[in-house]
Amino acid sequence: MKRYSISELSDRLSVHGRTFRDAREDILYFNWSCSTVEFIFRGTHLNVSLRAVCGQEFEGMPTDPNVTTRPTWPWLAVFLDDMDTPIRKFEVASPNETWLLYQSTEPETHRIRLVKRTENYKTFLGVSAFTAEGDFLPVEPKASKHIEIVGDSITCGYGNLVKDPARHFYSADEDGWQAYGAIAARSLDYDWSCVSVSGITSVRHAGWQLPFAMEDLYAYTDRAGQERLDLKPEKWDFAAHPSDAVVVNLGTNDCYAIQFSPKADELERFPAAYRAFLEEIRRLNGPHTHIICALGSMNYYLYHDIAGAVERYRRETGDGRVHLLRFQPMHPLDGAGADGHPSLETHVKMAGELAELLRGILEGEAK
Description:
By secondary structure, the protein is α+β, with helices and mostly antiparallel strands. The protein is 25% helix and 31% strand. The protein is built from eight helices and 15 strands.
């Protein structure tokens, strides 16, 4: 068995999503939901060595000084060739683990994808090495459109594997691969990436439970992950990784943050703050990317504020590549996942709505 370091395979590993390499230990981190490490392997035996860092989930209100926490560990899915269903999925429940990825009696060639099922900030995951009887071959790049889905717990697939609104967050219950953004992208044969964290707001609000809003994270590769590892956060290279469309499904938690804020003017200042974030997304992505400002499917309290901010922005700038999407609300007969989040049935419906809009925008544009 030969050991392959990440550096040795730098021209053999293809990554999808915002990933980074920690040069101190030569570890490739892929923390965001559905971030992927892909490669072509020919041989008979392949193991992967993984580095996991757990997050912490509160067992109660974070503001309670006596609240307890429990660790949350990442889950990984392994896909073979073009299969849409993983050949295996497992929790990495300690800092250093080695797992068997593939085994055969005779040498075979396969495309293998390692896809992180769980979200960033609650779970962190990296590849430190491979050991193999075989070789890694170059991955041929596949030309396709790329969409980036920016969001909160809904985009992460929080609790979508269970139907129990009374249940809280457990990483085993979350599958970003079966969340609406990933389903929509696969239905269109688009590449996609996610930038999403449960509980996150679009803009900062006084007194909210998370130490950051999406406006604090979006410009970076992985600010939350790199700060957790005591690394200086690096800016994301948008020019090197262009997106055809950016879907921003945020505002659900802004509603709650406004309600809990000690400041009385949070609602009044929200439209201008949301517009400033929209302008930053446009600046970072350049003039050609379509931006879809979405909301749903849990609450719509701020939809009219978002729509007003978007309409004013379009009218004042002439930017015709900014769009609105109001997802249909969760249907009672589809059930609800953990903490009342969308069920798998709801995610499939949301994916259909998003795919229809993207198809009309991106494929209509190509005609």
